[in-house]
Amino acid sequence: MEIVTNCVAIILTVLYGVLLSGEFRALRERQDASLLATRWIGVTVAIHLVALIVRGIEVGACPVASRWETLSLLALLIVTMHLVLAGISRDRSTLIFGIAVTFLLQLGSASFSLGESITDPQRIDSISSLHAFTAWIGVAGVSTAGIHGVLWLLLKRSIKSGQFGVLFHRLSSLESLSRLIRLATVIATVSLVITMVSAVFLGEVLTWSTGPVTSISLALAILFGVLALVPRSTGTVTAWRAWFSVTGLGGVVFIIVWIIRFGPHA
Amino acid sequence: MKLSSLTLSHSVFPIEIREKMAFSDDQAIRFLIEMSSRSEIDNALIISTCNRTELFIAVENERRGESILSDTLQHWSMERNFTIPDNSTQLILGHTDSIDRLLRVASGLESQLLGESEVLGQVRCSIDLSKQAGVDGRIIRKLWEKALRCGKRVRTETALGDGALSVAYGALQVARKIHGDLCGLNYCVVGAGEVAELVLKHLQAIKGAKITILNRSHEHAEFLAEVYGATLGDMDAIGKHICEADVVISSTGSQQPIIDTELIRSSLAGRARALLLVDLGVPRDIDPEARGLQQVFLYNIDDLARMIEGHLDSRKAAIPDAEEIVQHECTQFEIWLGNQQLGPAIRSLRKALEDASQKELDLLRDELDVEVHDHLSKLMRKVVKKVLHRPTEELRTSGNQLSDALLTRLESLFQGDDTEGQKKEVE
Q1: Predicted complex ipTM
Q2: In chain A, what residues touch B274 (CB-CB under 8 Å)?
């Protein structure tokens, strides 16, 4: 089984790598990636989803017991969220950045899958599964908002200073990015609220027993909750939202590093 | 006559300097009148656009032309407070380069935005200024006609003007990067000149665009508002209009900024959306300091030209074809100019031969009846024409290479011969 897991993790990494290089090629040639490329991303995501579902069935819970599972699930959620946002907004200009983050996470996952050997996976109940899954959706939402926040700030700077580089030509518009940030913020907030509520049932929030990951997640939930409530605009409010999203992305990076170092608390 | 020109364009001077060199129509006419009386010039043309101020003159020799233009540059530099660059000699062009320059300018080859069409209209209007100043002599008028013809040929026969690339197009590209969909946005166009009209043409194509035109004079603005489905606003309430607008595009002929930073700052209060200000005026209409405001994106003509540069590949490919047309038209003009100089010499040569043959024929008048005399007279003229045909053609093709001294000598040679013949006859 371990061989199959390793193979799937490596194949997924290769697939994301190929997709990323395809997007880069389109970027260099200043062409929009075709619908075909989007379909291939969909196929890759479907393979990834099936692999994790099979793994979930195998362990009988949400597959977050090991480092490779955690990173792989986060990679899947981030790319899925980018695809969903691209579908809703019909703006796939930021998909390449989502795939880049996904590729890095999947690369990490593949390296852990080769090094880690889980003989007896930790069994978790359904509330813990819900808690872990929504937490990861929330983290993926924060990451997505953060990625779009960074891009919004860079595009704004590019337009403001009249630097007409790749970002200026490639990204759609400040308005569209602002809409995507808001959408990702709302998704992250809803997920993190569910995470916090489920944590109350699990008694984690009160005991603070799981280290800074919980407190950072709580801070992100509050921050993004406020951001989700503020109406959208293309002016100063979006600038603040973008900066906070970038801060959120920083929190996510910390969480990922913490998990890589100490393992998932679930 | 030889042409000389002074070129102050975007390739050497940034917008901060160009706006100091810009001439309004009245200023241009005054300058041409003054130059005409000071230097006794009756062939001059000034083209002052947002990208350039170019002065063309035709005088008897290149050295004098260069001297006049050099003095003019010094005068402008002091009057308009700008520093002349070290390579100022490159700003003054000689005869052939001047012809080439005007034709290239009219063709859009020298435009900041390669192949733009506005410049042809600006060249077309420039002769009116010369006419009003009384310096639209035959040479400059012919050159102007040649430039227009060349500009039209380049645009119809090559791909240099293909595509919808213009500063207005560039402005809307930036607006798209900020606001996404351009439909339903509020646009405020300040000014009602040619550039404003071009902007309105682009805006008209946007579905649901709400356009407001602001202009000091309502006459032309009303016409534009009617043609392009815009509303006419009150220039005195410009702050209110900026407050309501998502995109403000200004292109007036004002010598001073008409939209200052304070006005923009006050218009931003309570505003949720970003504001794009596009300044297509030279001198600039919008205070450059406004660029520092948080929600404001300010673009001038140089910024837009830089942006569009990347989209000019197909136009760049058409440069060799366009240059070929320019070269051909230049040669045609030089032949025409040469012919103008050769004219007296050829006329004198022809007259000398015709007169000589006629005199010989007249000596036989008593021996011939009238009908035969007339017949021979016609025959003589035909012979002269045939004999002179080839030398005349040779002279015409190499006319622009012959020195003025040689042409004068040629002219006087036959006049002298003719006079001597007459003297002998009298004796």
Answers
A1: 0.81
A2: 174, 234-235
